[in-house]
Design goal:
This protein is an alpha/beta fold. 27% of the residues lie in helices and 14% in strands. It is built from 5 helices and 7 strands, in the order E-E-H-E-H-E-E-H-E-H-E-H. It has helices spanning 48-51, 112-141, 179-190, 207-212, 242-261, and strands at 6-9, 15-18, 61-65, 144-152, 167-170, 197-199, 219-227. A 7-stranded mixed β-sheet has the order 1-3-2-4-7-5-6, sandwiched between helices.
Length: 266
């Protein structure tokens, strides 16, 4: 299912992969508002649709947007409350690059009415589709799991100190999914030595993980934030590294298969 905001491919398992930051489109009417640097959409979650392409073979559905996070961030609350109080955050309509510099030309950042218009045009259709698909999966299988896939540069001083672990599993501090699912996924990460990892570290999960993760209502959510260095160049033109990606993909496959095989009553 494709419309002008997102593409949804339905699967045949309880698992849905959401990739909310893979879009690269900035509408023509909005482009004059941004500084020239924004046209490169450098803070995109690059190549994730390619990395997760194997999910279709597992019967996993996927949903991904067309528009850049610079237009609106689908992983932020609609009321624009900070995800990580006390730390630097990007907003529902981000005003800065991840490096901290202004994203918009002087005086051109969207006002509250413009933010609301973008929310209605881009944010709500994605979330309406995501919520509806999770309801469908829950009705069919008795439970649903959303896997929120992300990637980010490994060092970004404006957002976090030092270097991130390669793989950052987030479950909102253990509240967005059943403890047994969290433990099973962490065990998969523990069983390998190629990639460093942490569970519920700096990135515990954004709005999608926190909002849709309702274990008591049989809907579970997990976020995986991966460093670009795991599979791609961290500088422009952000090319994928086929050899590194080939090392990462089997681990991603094991993680998704674990989420597919897991059952709430096991």
């Amino acid at each position: 299912m494709t419309d002008n905001v997102y593409t949804l491919q339905r699967g045949t398992t309880p698992l849905l992969v959401s990739l909310p930051h893979t879009g690269t489109l900035i509408p023509e009417a909005l482009r004059p508002l941004y500084v020239a640097r924004a046209s490169a959409v450098e803070d995109t979650d690059w190549h994730l649709e390619r990395l997760y392409a194997f999910a279709r073979d597992l019967g996993v559905g996927t949903i991904a947007p067309r528009h850049s996070r610079y237009v609106i961030d689908l992983n932020r609350p609609p009321e624009n409350t900070p995800m990580y109080p006390g730390a630097n955050n990007t907003e529902l309509c981000p005003s800065r690059f991840f490096s901290g510099e202004p994203l918009y030309r002087e005086g051109r950042a969207p006002d509250p009415a413009q933010v609301a218009a973008r929310r209605d045009a881009y944010w709500r259709p994605y979330h309406d589709a995501l919520a509806a698909e999770l309801r469908r999966l829950k009705a069919q299988y008795g439970h649903a799991v959303v896997w929120d896939g992300h990637s980010i540069k490994s060092t970004l001083p404006w957002l976090f100190p030092g270097r991130l672990p390669d793989l950052n599993l987030g479950t909102a501090g253990g509240t967005s999914c059943a403890p047994a699912l969290r433990a099973a996924l962490t065990s998969v990460l523990d069983a390998q030595a190629r990639f460093s990892h942490v569970t519920d570290g700096r990135f515990k999960g954004g709005y999608i993980t926190r909002h849709y993760g309702r274990p008591e209502a049989a809907t579970h959510a997990v976020q995986l934030e991966m460093c670009w260095s795991c599979y791609m160049a961290e500088s422009s033109p952000y090319e994928i590294d086929a050899l590194r990606a080939a090392e990462l993909e089997p681990l991603l496959r094991r993680l998704l298969q674990t989420a597919i095989d897991w059952r709430p009553d096991a």
